[in-house]
């Protein structure tokens, strides 16, 4: 008999904690001068970006597929292709997410697992050699 191992969505604490992670991520991006490169790719008001990332991460972590239900398949690379994403932008995004993870996720093991997964996604988003 196999036991069901909790997924990342369950381990992080569900909707409330995913939302807290996303809110902190965009707060860091908005306030940290080192993240200016990626901040300028976003609209002045970050609410829509925040909502979309929350919906995406909900499903990506194993929770409700909110993004897919509203927008269809994520097609992440295709949706990000209009933006020039190189090593610098990748690193800025990961820096913001790392701070958000440290500030909102108490479980160190979960933070490490999510970081590894986020690095893979961020690498996949790169569309520039620089």
Automatic annotation (TrEMBL):
Name of the protein this chain belongs to: Group 2 truncated hemoglobin YjbI
GO molecular function: heme binding; metal ion binding; oxygen binding; oxygen carrier activity
Family: Belongs to the truncated hemoglobin family. Group II subfamily.
Gene3D superfamilies: Globins
Keywords: Heme, Iron, Metal-binding, Transport
Coiled-coil parts of chain: none
Protein transport is among the record's keywords: no
Native source organism of the sequence: Ferriphaselus amnicola
